[in-house]
Write a structure and sequence with these properties.
- The complex is a heterodimer of chains A (216) and B (352).
- Chain A is 56% helix and 11% strand.
- Chain A is α/β, with parallel strands linked by helices.
- Chain A has 2 domains: 2-150, Rossmann fold (3-Layer(aba) Sandwich); 161-215, Arc Repressor Mutant, subunit A (Orthogonal Bundle).
- The radius of gyration of chain A is 18 Å and the shape is globular.
- The model of chain A has no long low-confidence stretch (mean pLDDT 83).
- With 352 residues, chain B is of the alpha+beta class.
- Chain B folds into 3 domains: 2-140, no CATH class; 147-204; 214-349, Histidine kinase-like ATPase, C-terminal domain (Heat Shock Protein 90, 2-Layer Sandwich), CATH 3.30.565.
- In chain B, strand 1 and strand 2 (75-82) form a beta hairpin.
- The model of chain B has no long low-confidence stretch (mean pLDDT 85).
- Classes of the chains: A alpha/beta (216), B alpha+beta (352).
- Chain A binds chain B through residues 24-27, 29-31, 33-34, 37, 47, 49, 69, 71-76, 78, 101-102, 122-127, and chain B through 151-152, 154-155, 157-159, 161-163, 165-167, 169-170, 174-175, 178, 181-182, 185, 188-189, 192-193, 196, 230, 261, 264-265, 267, 310, 312-314.
Chain lengths: 216, 352
């Protein structure tokens, strides 16, 4: 039984899909090789917009390896951080491993604040990158298992104590409603059933948080 | 009435004499002010040097003495010229880390003399104040540019080191059966690595590149550069220029890079580059336009070093390109019609 389980885990790992978000085509190609040699299914994007498009088509991506310096401002962290925010706001389950040449301390802090899973400074060894990706995939898979088996959903909330409980509750409500709507492909009836609410309550949240079908 | 004539004549003559004298005095002060301005320019707006040499023209303006106390980025200097008394024009000028106190002794001047002294002294203070700002602007600008350059070079360098390190690791640990794939990726990676390292060195080096002149087929050069930037281009015409290959590649790399940067800012529209080449006498004229591009909003700043539209670029690409083209005996201009996309026009010596 244990062996069967291990085999199943290994199979799951071999198909783990990784998205490389890196504007340097040469580096992207070499990293792709590193990942593919370790049996990951690799997708590529050279900008935030491209990454968003890939994620939309492949919501099952387990992890992103993200360079913070992306066009149109490759020498600042603006676009990279915007990508993390976009993944978080889109409620994608993918874990984000930041691999960047930007100033380490401030970038790491900003990336973690936005929701990055791990942070590596360039240059990093392929072993370090693979370890980080492996951890990210493991977390992704475990969260997915928990979600499927126990209905557990992980939400990330950046809460300021000074804002009080109400702000935290509202953010959690919004994220949960958005996530369930996304999972049910905006089916209000199913979402209400999943959340144990009346449909009217779902419509109330749609209005309150300004959620539209295309957002989900 | 007739008795008054001599008096009237005397008054008129006095007025003429006084006016003539005032005019000559005004002219003299204007000439002294001009001398101060020229001296300042000659000394390249260097405040300490100007202070040490401005006494000569000032003494011609009738000042008896000059005293200045300069705190120059933490070093204090006190300097005196001429004789000192009680009556003086005293001024303190301060700009960030520079503080200057100037005292001009004019010996209790009155009436028109006082007016003339004020004119000259205010001109002097204005020059001193300008010099302080020039120095401060230069210092701050240099620091800012160095910091910006460091960020850019560090970013590029880290990417190059990361690339080399991953390639080296792969070379030593590629799984059996995947060598062919590694070789294939190395073939794609190594030329771009070389290009980038050369570009990196060019940015660091102020020396002109190897000046060996060779005939260069422009179509080949454009296709090569477009490939690096992943651009599709349409080329009309053909031509060969006689220039340094590295310089020419760098010029078009910068021009194409400018279009790529612009398209990344405005990701809705992909660049559609049209290049036309025409041979004219001993020159080859090249026009490059992004048909989908926007009109240029800052035509006067296009070639300004260290300026970029969004502040996110190093801002030396186009400046560097222009320097290289001029160095190769050509010209680089930008046509910036108000309602149409910008066109770069490059002229380079034709290979005969």
């Amino acid at each position: 039984m244990n062996q069967q389980s291990e085999t199943a885990d290994q199979e799951q790992q071999t198909v783990a899909r990784i998205l490389l978000v890196e504007d340097d085509p040469a580096l992207r190609l070499v990293m792709r090789n590193v990942m593919e040699n370790n049996d990951y299914d690799v997708l590529e994007a050279d900008s935030r917009v491209a990454a968003e498009a890939v994620l939309k088509v492949n919501p099952d991506i387990a992890a992103l390896v993200l360079d913070l310096g992306l066009p149109p401002s490759p020498h600042t962290t603006t676009e990279g951080l915007a990508t993390i925010k976009s993944v978080m706001d889109g409620l994608y389950p993918a874990k984000i491993v930041v691999l960047t040449g930007q100033d380490e301390e401030s970038s790491a802090l900003a990336a973690v604040r936005e929701g990055a899973f791990d942070f590596l400074a360039k240059p990093s060894s392929s072993a370090d990158i693979l370890n980080a990706v492996q951890r990210a995939v493991l977390f992704y898979q475990n969260e997915r298992t928990l979600s499927e088996q126990e209905g557990l959903t992980k939400l990330q909330i950046n809460a300021k104590v000074a804002d009080g409980l109400k702000a935290v509750r509202e953010e959690a409500e919004e994220k949960l409603v958005r996530k369930v709507l996304k999972e049910t492909e905006f089916n209000v009836y199913q979402s209400a059933a999943k959340l144990g609410l009346k449909r009217e309550s779902i419509y109330y949240f749609l209005k309150k948080f300004g959620i539209k079908r295309e957002d989900s | 009435m007739a008795n008054l004539y001599p008096y009237l004549i005397l008054i008129g003559a006095s007025i003429i004499v006084a006016t003539t004298w005032l005019l000559s005095q005004a002219r003299r002060r204007a000439s002294i002010t001009k001398e101060l301005v020229s001296l300042n320019e000659e000394l390249e707006f260097d405040l300490p040097n100007f202070l040490r040499q401005c006494w000569r023209p000032l003494s011609k303006a009738g000042f008896r003495g000059l005293e200045w106390e300069l705190d120059w980025f933490g070093s204090s200097v006190l300097h005196q010229e001429g004789s000192h008394g009680e009556a003086c024009i005293d001024r303190i000028l301060e700009v960030e880390d520079i503080r200057l106190r100037v005292r001009l002794f004019d010996g209790k001047r009155r009436f028109e003399q006082r007016y003339f002294s004020t004119l000259v002294s205010e001109s002097l203070f204005l020059l001193l104040y300008t010099d302080m700002w020039v120095k401060l602007g230069t210092v701050q600008g240099t620091f800012a540019q160095t910091a910006k350059m460091n960020v850019f070079l560090q970013h590029d360098m880290k990417n190059i080191v990361q690339l080399i390190s991953l390639v080296a690791e792969q070379l030593s640990g590629t799984p059996a059966g995947k060598e062919a794939k590694l070789l294939e990726s190395l073939r794609a990676v190594m030329p771009t690595l070389r290009e980038r390292s050369e570009r990196f060195l060019n940015t660091l080096s102020s020396a002109p590149p190897d000046a060996e002149m060779t005939p260069i087929d422009l179509c080949d050069s454009f296709h090569k550069t477009a490939k690096i930037h992943d651009l599709t281009i349409i080329i009309e015409g053909s031509g060969e220029v006689l220039a340094n290959e590295q310089s020419v590649n760098s010029v078009f790399d910068n021009l194409f890079g400018n279009y790529v940067d612009e398209s990344r800012r405005n990701s809705d529209v992909q660049p559609d580059i049209k290049v036309s080449i025409a041979e004219e006498d001993d020159q080859v004229r090249i026009e490059i336009t992004d048909i989908n591009g926007r009109p240029c909003l800052w035509p006067e700043r296009l070639f300004e070093p260290f300026w970029s539209e969004k502040g996110d670029g190093l801002g030396i690409g186009l400046y560097h390109a222009r320097q290289l083209v001029t160095g190769a005996g050509g010209t680089l201009q930008a046509l910036t019609p108000a309602q149409e996309p910008m066109t770069f026009v490059v002229s380079l010596p034709r290979s005969l």
